[in-house]
């Protein structure tokens, strides 16, 4: 798992956040509250990333709403526990051409993938000194 500073660096940097949320078009950060909240807007959706202490780690809550005129996105699946993430990993959806508007199922899969990526351990390659 990533440390709170690593998570914050990942979600508060516009380029890093865009790599995660690129399915929603060009991403820009509209507001940030240090170490806890990042609000973002894309071409087809907008949302918020919240970081808060939880036990021995950090809870990451990611929300998204369609851009005005779109239908609402379904609720993301509840947070899966450590063992479910470890052994019950779902296959990633195959990438699609960028549609003008994400379908709700694809949007939920994208958000779930972002949460999985943010929760994944960051491994550095082995090096000799």
User: Domains counted in the coordinates: how many?
Assistant: 1
Percentage beta strand:
15-25%
Radius of gyration: 15 Å
> Oligomeric state of the chains?
single chain
Q: How would a textbook summarize the main sheet?
A: 4 strands, antiparallel
Summarize the structure.
30% of the residues lie in helices and 24% in strands. By secondary structure, it is of the alpha+beta class.
Topology:
Layout: H1 4-12, H2 14-21, E1 28-33, E2 37-41, E3 45-54, E4 57-66, H3 82-87, H4 104-119
Antiparallel strand pairs: 1-2, 2-3, 3-4
Structural notes for this entry:
By secondary structure, the chain is of the alpha+beta class. It has one domain (4-118). 30% of the residues lie in helices and 24% in strands. It contains four helices and four strands, in the order ααββββαα. A hairpin with a 3-residue loop joins strand 1 and strand 2 (37-41). The longest helix has 16 residues, at 104-119. The radius of gyration is 15 Å and the shape is globular.
């Amino acid at each position: 798992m990533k440390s709170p500073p690593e998570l914050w660096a990942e979600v508060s940097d516009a380029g890093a956040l865009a790599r995660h949320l690129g399915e929603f078009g060009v991403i820009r950060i509209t507001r940030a509250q240090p170490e806890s909240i990042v609000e973002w807007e894309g071409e087809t959706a907008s949302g918020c990333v919240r970081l808060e202490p939880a036990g021995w780690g950090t809870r990451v809550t990611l929300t998204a709403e369609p851009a005005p005129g779109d239908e609402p996105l379904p609720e993301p699946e509840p947070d899966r526990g450590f063992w479910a993430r470890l052994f019950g990993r779902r296959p990633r959806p195959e990438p699609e051409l960028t549609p003008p508007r994400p379908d709700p199922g694809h949007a939920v899969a994208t958000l779930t993938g972002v949460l999985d990526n943010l929760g994944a351990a960051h491994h550095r390659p082995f090096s000799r000194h």
